[in-house]
Structure formats: C-alpha cells, structure tokens
Amino acid sequence: MTTLSDAVAKRRTFAIISHPDAGKTTLTEKLLLFGGAIQMAGAVKARGEQRRAHSDWMKVERERGISVASSVMTYDYNGKTFNLLDTPGHEDFSEDTYRTLTAVDSAVMVIDAAKGIEAQTLKLFEVCRLRDMPIITFVNKLDRESRDPFELIDEVEQRLALDVTPASWPIGMGRSFLGCYDLLHDRLLLVERSRDKKGAEGESCSGIDDPKLDELLPADAVAQLREEVEMVRGLCPEFDRQAYLDGTMTPVYFGSALNNFGVRELLQGVADMAPAPRPQPAVGRLVEPTEDKISGFVFKIQANMDPNHRDRIAFLRLCSGHFKRGSKLRHSRSGKTINVHNPVLFLARDRELAEEAWPGDIIGIPNHGNLGIGDALTEGEELKFTGIPSFAPEYLQTVRPADPLRAKHLGRALQQLAEEGAARVFKPTIGADWIVGVVGPLQFDVLADRIRTEYEVPVHFEPTSLHTARWVECDDALKLKRFVDSNQGAMGTDHTGAPVFLARNAWHLDRAAEDNPDLRFLKTKEQI
Ligand code: GDP
C-alpha cells in the first residue's frame, strides 16, 4: 500500500517557463514521450503546428479548445510521478501563467541558445523569484548556430542574479554539434546515438581525461572540451542542492529538444534535484504535504468548455492528505461541504475519473460556479492559502450589450467570467455600464467572443478615460466608508463587492493616496 510520505516523495509538480518560440511545446512533447504518453505528445505537437498557422486570436481560441486536456499532464518516469502544468504562451494571458506558477514546486526555464534571455523569460522568472522557486535551465537549439556557452551562462548569472552551474557542457554547436559532456555523472552523450526515439544512455567515463573520449570524438573537439570543462569547473561553483532549492542557484543543461537531445538528462535532473511537493503557506501556518487531512486550493477555472453544458472545471492543487473519490470537503468561501464525487485526473492520455490523488497532484472538479480562484477545500479546517494573486488590470473598457434588453444576461456573464478569473469586472457606483479590466488587450477580443457565443449576448467594448483601478483597504472601517462616500464618482465594486478606486489618471491616484495615508490602494489583491 502506498503511504502518504512515499507518494509525496515520488512526486514532481513543475511548469516550463520560456519566451514564445524557445521550444516549450517541443520540449513538453519530448518529455511526455519519455513518460510513454505518446498520444498526448501528438496532441501537443498538433497544437504547436496549428498555433503557427493562425493569428494570435485564433491561436488563443484553439488553445482553449484543447487546454483542459493538456493544461495538466501527468506521467511516470523511472519511479517518479511528474505533473507538468502548462502555461499559456501569449503574454496577454500571463495572469493565467502567474497563477499556475503558484501551483508548482519548481520550474524548468527554456532558453533559445541563439537568443539568450528574452523579455518574457525575464518576466516569468521574476514571478518565480517571488516564490523562491527552484529553477533548472535548459538551453535549447544547440543544433543551430548559437551564442558561446560561456556567454550564455554569464548572461543567466548577470541578468537573473543567480549562481549558475552547468550540469552538462556542449561539444560544438550548429552543424558541428556533437553532443554534451555530462558534468554531474561523467558521461559522454553523443547526438548521433540519441537519434532514436528516447535517446541513448551515454558512455560512462572515468573523467574528462578518460582516453575513451579520444576514441569517440575528433581530436580537436576533445582538446576543446577538456579545456572548456577545466575552465567551467574553475569558474562556476559546484552544484549545491540547497542553493538550488532556495532558488539562488540554477543548474544548466544544454541540448536540442527537436533532436531528443539532452531531454533524458533534463528529466532525470528534475527527478533527482527538483523538490517533492513543498509545504504551502496559509494564513497562520504552513501546510505540510504529509499532514493526514486533505487540503488544496483552486488556482484555475476553465468554464464553458462545452457550450451546451454550463460546465466549469476548477483545478485544485492538492497540498496535503490522501484524496479519494467521494471525499467530502469543506469549501472555504461558503463554509459548505462539497462531495467530490466526479473528480477528473489529467492523465497524459486523456481525462480520467480520479479514484485517488496525492499532494502535488492536480484534480479537476466539475462545478456550476461555486468554486472560485483562491478557494480552499479542506477536511474541516478553516484554511486560507496565501500568495494567489489577482492583478490590477492595465486596460479598462466599458462594455454594453448590443440589445439593451440583454443587460441582465450580460451582468450574469460578466460575474461568471470574473469568478473564472478571465477578467476583472467593476460596477461603478454611479452609472449603468460595467467596466472590464484586463492585463493584455487581446483579452477583450476573446471576452467579446465568449460573451457572444457562450452567453448569447453580442456586446460592444468601448474605451474609457480611466487610467487604472486599485482595490482600497483600510483597517479602520469607518475611514474606508468615509472615503467611499465622498468619492462616489470614482468608486466601484469588484465582483465580490470589494471597493475599488477607479482613477482618471496617475495624478488622481497619487492625490487620493496622499490625502488618505491610512488607506491602502492595492495593485494586486489576494483572492479570498
Ligand atoms: P514554444 O513557442 O516555446 O512552444 O516553441 P515551439 O516548441 O513551438 O518551437 C518553436 C520553433 O522552434 C519550432 O519551429 C520548433 O520546431 C523549433 N525548435 C524547437 N526546438 C528546437 C531545437 O532543438 N532545434 C531547432 N533547430 N529547432 C527547434
């Protein structure tokens, strides 16, 4: 029988972060191949191809279409169970990505060897850093002309302020890319031998001076390899697991996902180095994964996958306990008990009914809108997990139904979309229009389309003169009330009824903050 601590020890829940086109989809596909999830790997690939063939907007829609199946991929490799959480590629949907990162214990950062650190890599890295997330780096596309590997590791070190230690070292690049030397296990990995589906094991060596290397590699390549390895070992610190777990050191693998090269080593690296499910912070205490009682939090909602059924799936990250189908759990927000009788486990092949799940696993809970992002499910305890952010929108528009008689329907649609986390929705205290806020402007197009197709309300979005929105909090309820009452023209509420200040411009916001030093004007608000 599996014990809780065994199940926890063998789990690795992680996400891949990268700039678009660095090779995340390709790497995901290859990682799944190793886990025997070939069918799913095909789907991921198809998705990659479709994406390139369509506009951004189409791409987003298409991603939604298959994203329930592929947003969590669970597979086994070498005695470990991996939960790989997918993150949306387009930066306008980065909010989704941020939330997904709250549900993983570590990340793999993919970098294009010709480009180095790119804008989106940096942004996502910063989010990981906020959580001291351990990160393994994979430098991809070594089969192309790349930047010098010393320059690349230097860039990671400088721009991310991380200690860097290569786990493997490339031998040549582009057309003359021969393979890598595995610095952690003293093994020679050759590209030509890894062409078969799963890549070869590699040749064990007694060290970088092993004469075997002279037999297997051209003389000039061996000479260069020995010289570079000596430099690397002199320049870079040794791998320090604690520093990696603390998020201050990243081991770097080199490879080519397209050629299956370096993927096995990366996967083994995640198995060996990456943390098992970590304790999750909650108000007042840390929740240990090995606690007997079940607990978890919702980090993502996917709604209306099937327009004929108003179904929603809440993605729950299990934080502790052994979950079994039919478990009765307390829902933090309503205080009600939920009988989870039809949970979905995201096995790589397909959705399957989950009979059981362990800490680190993600289960999908079909529901009709009662579960929201940030909600906790527990076996009775009143828990509130922290660190699940809601972002102040950077783009605000008003929304109106094309047919004024559909205003009520629109209100309902907006409420549901806000609960799903697809947008911020504000009701100004004065005036009839709703204000919708998003992080990336492409989200407006998707919202208009969803409101039309899923709720049958054609709508118009129109620009506003508003600059930004801030949640307003104050420890003194009376002071807050006074502010709200005297600023009615600039106040509204979000979908939970929390007060929001709608600023006309930066000066308006600064002024309000200066005049009311006891109030907090918050850019992000933790979900309750
Ligand atoms: P994503 O946007 O990060 O998911 O990137 P994709 O996996 O879709 O890859 C972007 C492009 O780079 C595609 O054309 C891939 O075929 C290509 N690609 C990915 N990995 C490699 C690699 O190791 N070598 C080469 N030459 N191309 C690659």
UniProtKB/TrEMBL annotation:
Keywords: Cytoplasm, GTP-binding, Nucleotide-binding, Protein biosynthesis
CC annotations in GO: cytosol
Binding site for GTP: 18-25, 86-90, 140-143
Family matches, as Pfam families: EF-G_D2, GTP_EFTU, RF3_C
InterPro entries (UniProt xref): EF-G-like_DII (IPR053905), EFG_III/V (IPR035647), G_TR_CS (IPR031157), P-loop_NTPase (IPR027417), PrfC (IPR004548), RF3_C (IPR032090), RF3_dom_3_sf (IPR038467), RF3_GTP-bd (IPR041732)
Gene3D superfamilies found in the cross-reference section: P-loop containing nucleotide triphosphate hydrolases, Peptide chain release factor 3, domain III, Translation factors
Start and end residues of each Tr-type G domain: 9-278
HAMAP family per record: Rel_fac_3
Function: Increases the formation of ribosomal termination complexes and stimulates activities of RF-1 and RF-2. It binds guanine nucleotides and has strong preference for UGA stop codons. It may interact directly with the ribosome. The stimulation of RF-1 and RF-2 is significantly reduced by GTP and GDP, but not by GMP.
Family (UniProt): Belongs to the TRAFAC class translation factor GTPase superfamily. Classic translation factor GTPase family. PrfC subfamily.
The protein's name: Peptide chain release factor 3
Source organism phylogeny: Bacteria, Pseudomonadati, Pseudomonadota, Alphaproteobacteria, Rhodospirillales
